């Protein structure tokens, strides 16, 4: 079988990994500026964010889009590396 790498930047990435990477990259305040949701502004924890995002599709979509854009920008900055 061919072992083809998925083109989907979210393939194999958990929601927890997404939130953790974004928090590490932007900080809670930076996330709150980019996506106006209370779990980024008031109850700042990965656990509360996961709980909210798992039951709120529109917010999860925004977070996933920010993650994809951030990963793409990081890859471009690093010269197209993994």
- Number of domain units: 1
Percent of sequence in beta strands: under 5%
Order of helices and strands: HHHH
Largest sheet: none
Apparent shape: globular
Helicity level:
55-70%
The CATH topology is given as: Transcription Termination Factor Rho, Rna-binding Domain, Chain A, Domain 1
How many angstroms does the end-to-end distance come to? 23 Å
- What is the gyration radius calculated from CA atoms? 14 Å
Give a structural overview.
The chain has 82 residues and is mainly α. It has one domain (16-77): SAP domain (Transcription Termination Factor Rho, Rna-binding Domain, Chain A, Domain 1, Orthogonal Bundle), CATH 1.10.720.30. It is built from 4 helices and no strands. The longest helix is centred in the last third of the chain and has 21 residues, at 57-77. The relative contact order is 0.15.
In short:
This protein has 4 helices and no strands. It is mainly alpha-helical.
Topology:
Layout: H1 15-34, H2 38-41, H3 46-55, H4 57-77
Key terms:
single chain; mainly alpha; Transcription Termination Factor Rho, Rna-binding Domain, Chain A, Domain 1
């Amino acid at each position: 079988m061919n072992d083809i790498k998925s083109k989907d930047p979210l393939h194999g990435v958990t929601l927890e990994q997404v939130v953790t990477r974004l928090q590490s990259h932007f900080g809670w305040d930076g996330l709150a500026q980019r996506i106006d949701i209370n779990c980024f502004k008031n109850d700042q924890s990965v656990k509360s964010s996961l709980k909210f995002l798992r039951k709120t599709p529109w917010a999860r979509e925004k977070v996933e889009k920010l993650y994809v854009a951030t990963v793409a920008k990081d890859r471009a900055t690093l010269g197209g590396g993994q």
